[in-house]
What we know:
By secondary structure, the protein is mainly α. The protein is built from ten helices and no strands. The longest helix is centred in the middle third of the chain and has 19 residues, at 105-123.
Amino acid sequence: MTKHDAARRAFLVRAAVGAGAVAGAGLVPGAHAQNPEHHKQADAPPQQHPMGGGHGAFFNHDDAATIAAFTERLMPGAPDKPGANDAGVLNYIDLALAGAYAELQDFYRRGLAQLDAYCRKSYNEPFQLLSAAQQDEVIAALEEGKAPGFTWPSAQEFFNTVRTHTMEGMFADPLYGGNREFAGWRLVGFPGAQVMFTPIDLQSKQAFTRAPMIGLQEAASSPKRKG
Length: 227
């Protein structure tokens, strides 16, 4: 892992710990930037695509590949350190846009279309086919508002929204489709829901290692345990 990757991971982890509530929060749509025409949705149903993990609720194949690559560069994985793809961030955002964040569907459609146009003009390739270094250059240009061709959402609005949703997908309750196998919670030492905390637990200064109570989606996707 490069110093750049490590710094990005460290930023998101610090932000998640600082936010506190993110780790146990559900889907609570915030005041994201919206176009006055955001209610105009495409008539065609979302395409199914072979991304696995229950994807295809909103994203088509190409958009899913772009979001998977983008979020992995925001939260890159490393040995024994889960990244966005390990935690199922794509699945979280996909399900959220088909449900609680449905008002952001047009925001994502337009943002992804502008991102694709910018990458093809600047690198002659879509985002998901760029090298990691090139993807980082694109992300930096968005973050700094230096990527031309973005109208609505602006480059910075798109970057900030995807980064926020990446954090949610890493650290929110697995019930909502991300934080697979409690990867994000384990990363920050968050204990999750427990039946109880013993006096020893409360007094211990060691990292809490007991697995959280399993969520509904996690239970549905896990192999059946023998009774």
